[in-house]
């Protein structure tokens, strides 16, 4: 009795290729997520430097005036 494993080998080959594609996709998603994280972090730092830091200086000045009055 001869057993034909051709179909099984084809399915195993397809599963191996799909597994490799999944691994590459996960690596790509990880790299893309890291790049997006860095860009968002840079955006937050720029926003803080442009908007929040001057506002904080004004609030600190007001608080200093309030402390001198009280």
3D structure, described in words:
This protein has 70 residues and is an all-alpha fold. Helices cover 91% and strands 0% of the residues. The protein has one helix at residues 6-69. The longest helix has 64 residues, at 6-69. The protein is rod-shaped.
Gist of the model:
The protein is mainly alpha-helical and 70 residues long.
Could you name the ranges where pLDDT drops below 50 across 5 or more consecutive residues? none
Main beta sheet: none
Rounded to the nearest angstrom, the radius of gyration is 30 Å
Overall 3D geometry?
A: rod-shaped
Mean pLDDT, to the nearest integer, reads 92
| Helix content class | over 70%
Give the topology string: H per helix, E per strand. H
Q: β content, as a range?
A: under 5%
The chain-level structural class is: mainly alpha
Number of strands: 0
Instruction: Give the count of helical stretches.
Output: 1
Query: What is the CA-CA span between the terminal residues?
Result: 101 Å
């Amino acid at each position: 009795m001869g057993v034909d494993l051709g179909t099984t080998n084809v399915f195993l080959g397809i599963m191996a290729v799909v597994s490799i594609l999944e691994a590459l996709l996960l690596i790509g998603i990880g790299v893309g997520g890291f790049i997006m994280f860095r860009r968002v972090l840079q955006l937050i730092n720029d926003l803080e430097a442009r908007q929040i830091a001057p506002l904080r200086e004004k609030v600190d000045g007001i608080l200093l005036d309030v402390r001198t009055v009280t």
